[in-house]
Design a protein that fits this description.
Helix content: 55-70%
Distance between the termini: 22 Å
Number of strands: 0
Order of helices and strands: HHHHHH
Shape: globular
Number of helices: 6
Amino acid sequence: MLGLLNSGVLDFALHSIASTKQGGYFEYKPMYIKQLPIRTIDFSDPTDKTRHDRMVKLVEQMLDLHKQLAEAKEPQTKTVLQRQIETTDRQIDRLVYELYELTEEEIKIVEGS
């Protein structure tokens, strides 16, 4: 769930339905989150199970990278960790594109937002 909620796809969807606050921030209220197209995983489907397991792995990796970044002292280490975070974020987005079966055109719309 964390991977989905932090993906570009659901961020795009939320921005299309949620109210903006002062400064251009979006409200993540339950009334908006309930409207998001959260796809249910079918654990009896090997493809769905594989995607789920991959997402869990990526989210755990992302959480660990952010923890390391918060503890990092050296600028070089921070730069390397930030690049790893960006790469992991892109992997999560690609997995969500696959999960929601987005076309190349739809992906361009999401990424352009």
